[in-house]
Specification:
By secondary structure, this protein is α/β, with parallel strands linked by helices. The chain has helices spanning about 65-90, 100-105, 110-115, 135-155, 170-175, 225-245, 265-275, 285-295, 310-320, 325-335, 345-360, 360-370, 375-380, 385-395, 400-420, 430-440, 445-465; strands spanning about 25-35, 95-100, 120-125, 160, 180-185, 195, 200-205, 250-255, 280-285. It is elongated.
Length: about 475
Amino acid sequence: MRYRRDMHGYGETPPKAAWPGEARVAVQFVLNYEEGGENCVLHGDAASEAFLSEIVGAAQWPGQRHWNMESIYEYGARAGFWRLHRLLTEKSVPVTVYGVATALRRSPAQVAAMLEAGWEIASHGLKWVEHKDMKPEEEREAIAEAIRLHTLVTGERPRGWYTGRCSVNTVDLVTEAGGFDYISDTYSDDLPYWYEHGGRQQLIIPYTLDANDMRFATPQGFNSGDQFFSYLKDSFDALYAEGTSGSPKMMSIGLHCRLIGRPGRVMALARFIDYVRSHEKVWIARRVDIAEHWAKTHPPRLPAERPSQMSEEAFVERFGGIFEHSDWVARRAWADELSPANDTAVGLAAALTFQFRAASDEQRLGVLVAHPDLAGKLAEARRLTASSTEEQASAGLDALTDEERTRFTELNERYVMKFGFPFIIAVRDNTKASILAAFEKRIANDRDTEFATACRQVERIALLRLKALLPA
């Protein structure tokens, strides 16, 4: 049972982005160019478009042209694009265009203006249509055709990819196609990251649907330019503060010619650009610039040890001793659900501990009994496991005075006689003195209380052992 989604990512401590100029945030403007590539029976599609227009809640019209919908998209190409082009070029804003290949082909003047401005034109797929129901081979062919058509129209092969209305296979298929500096069909992080598929490391630069003018065309979205500006400002302020505190991130802003290109909205974008410009140490970049920086500054590494991807034999050999002489815990964890979130010390400890807690009292007692006495006969005879030997030595239990050894022996005998299992404590958290103090205190517990306390200590020992083996 393997859960493919990665709910861990960078975890609590993301990498230092090290943006150029010590920037506290990397800001990236994306202009989606979809006009002329949307669903339309003139394009050979089965129905009209129904997505992202002024007609909120529109439905497709099977076999019919939707004149109003078509004209809304046409506005984006005829008027909205040029309004945005003037604004962005006058303010010298670097831009990445997500260009639908068929839309670009139908807009030669706009493409020429993009190229003249030095904008990056990334691929937005062959057509602006839904891909969720496409068979992998059909989508693979569409990707190849999008690359071919894009290259013929712009003169260059696209270096970035974003389908948008993607399928569960899109990222893998584009990775297989190869040749892309980045893919953006994900919304899962504030930083780029590397994704592995088929033995290939592919850079992912996450995109956004929240800092995006598409919310002008959705229920409970933006109703005015002021709302759009306010949301962008708050997003920028939060990320800028994080960058100032030493954890720089990336902010993506999604734009559409037919949406933000309207007169009643475009001034909000202009105000936001000015607001960003009023701050020091901000890097406004194209997505391909971010990709180049990340590949150079944070290149892909050889895949780290990933417990969730191990065979049962390798998993048990590696982690079977985490719970002392109780490899059944590891076997049950391997047979249960594991995911990338379990490939860290904390994550794998959680998976193993789950199985330990789910076991019967008799089985958990067996784990307790498997633990050696502290400074006991096994330690003297050098018959402890490597982990136990190292742990006991870390607290100085391998170098006791005669008096200390006698005291430990007395306590061990009394404890085992009372509870039926040895005294267990995470020695890495303690000193010789604190261990003795805990021994003295816990021996007065009733059996149920001490059984629960010992089990918690077993879990703590497991976590500490895993932290010595895996990243936190």
